[in-house]
Amino acid sequence: VHQQVWAALNEHGDRIALTCTKTGRSFKYSRLKQLSTNMACWLQDNYSSTDQGTHVATVLPNSVELAISALGALEAGVPIALFNPHYTPFELSLALSVGKPKWVITTSDRVHTILEAMSLSKVEVQIFTVDDDITFSKVKHFEELVSEGGTPNKNFGKHGGIVMYNDGEARKISQKNILANCLQLSQPELSPLEPGDKMAAIIPMWNCHGLTHTLLRGLRSGAEVVTVSHLQPSQILATVNKNKVSVLPTLSSMVDWLTGCKKQDLEGLKSITVSGRPSLLSDRLGCIFKGEVLHSYGPAEGPILFQQRRGSACRAGSVGQLLPGTEARITGPDGNNDLPYNVPGEIWVRGPQLGDGKLWMSTGDQGYYDQDGWFYITEQAEMNVDGLKVSPTELEAVLKQHESVAEAAVFLADKELVAAVVPFDPYKPPSCKELNLHLGTQLAPYKHVCDVVIMSSLPKDSSGEVNRKHLSKNYNPKKELASITYV
């Protein structure tokens, strides 16, 4: 991966590679390469493949240090775990228990969270902070990891890759998968990026989607990646205009506010890529924005599988066509019989960005393709909020720990999380605020619910499973929903 990223270093060395909007710092390609290589040397000097879990982890928002850590680990051939910086101590303790990292890189305001997670998980780690506010004993500075130069061993090992944690499980994405997806997305018919372009890194770089779609693809193209650590629309627009961003990769959940922008707010952009299942407002974006709008799709926090080709008119509701080298089939309920075009079924895929590239993998999504190879998603298997994967069973387990809740089911309604609750006492049902306070003791804010529906019983199918589709279809929102904001 690092060889592809730095392939044109001689050509782009004096260009700005990364700009951090939070700190105002900018790093040229040559400087970013040197720091990443220094990081690779440090990791190789201190890594032992015989010790369980001796890899580095980050608890960082989109930042220069996150980029250096990921690039350095990939160059070193050392596995790196990218933990969600919004995690609570409870969630982070589960991640530490599964991943067992030896070193954790974070910001000073997250040190308390990591220390509490260490106490809960009984996992000891060495903490490095990326800022100067070090008020804790035994906490070291990130500078120690990148201060000494050297030449990494190219044949160090085959342990490298990105370790993703979610739902209590860790899965490793190999360098081969990451590189394949980066090369697919860098094809001229798919990528609007040119050397010198400025691209906003809004999609979280601490998951496979954002890391590949923004950071790696941007650097490989010789563009300047402008990191944005917050998802508030006003801050994104301010960043776009202040930094003269020309390419904006975004999420389908953000299309609503994009369509509400004034035309002059988007005049500096030449291209917008929307990842995720298209919303009803996606077509309106083309009326406001006169530049290029491309649609892409992949599993939450996973690799991209489909994208619209440049120069082709978008088809309403479509997520695009298969990436080069990727295959798909639509099957019926038995999972064996392939269905013809325009007939919905379960989507199976295989390609170099997935596993060994040979085995068919089910996305779990329902959809179909038309006679020209454009794909449409009719039902998503995974819940996600702003591109972040959410497990309904995880939320339900925490909700049922509340003293007032007998049963609970979580479902999506208009891209918002809603909880259906059966209380022990129907005359004393829990409020939305009360349940979110309870959820907040264990789960990150983006996993909070926007509304609570009180029910006498939950709808279930013949096998006894909660029918979330029925809940979502028949949900009648209140006039005023409790809003949740997270940073």
From TrEMBL:
Domain AMP-dependent synthetase/ligase: 8-137, 173-355
Domain AMP-binding enzyme C-terminal residue range list: 394-464
Any one GO CC term of the record: peroxisome
UniProt entry keywords in alphabetical sequence: Ligase, Peroxisome
Keyword Lipoprotein in annotation: no
InterPro entries linked: AMP-bd_C, AMP-bd_C_sf, AMP-dep_synth/lig_dom, ANL_N_sf
Annotated compartments: Peroxisome
Pfam families per record: AMP-binding (PF00501), AMP-binding_C (PF13193)
A molecular function (GO) term: CoA-ligase activity
Family: Belongs to the ATP-dependent AMP-binding enzyme family.
Protein name: Putative acyl-coa synthetase
Originating organism: Panstrongylus megistus
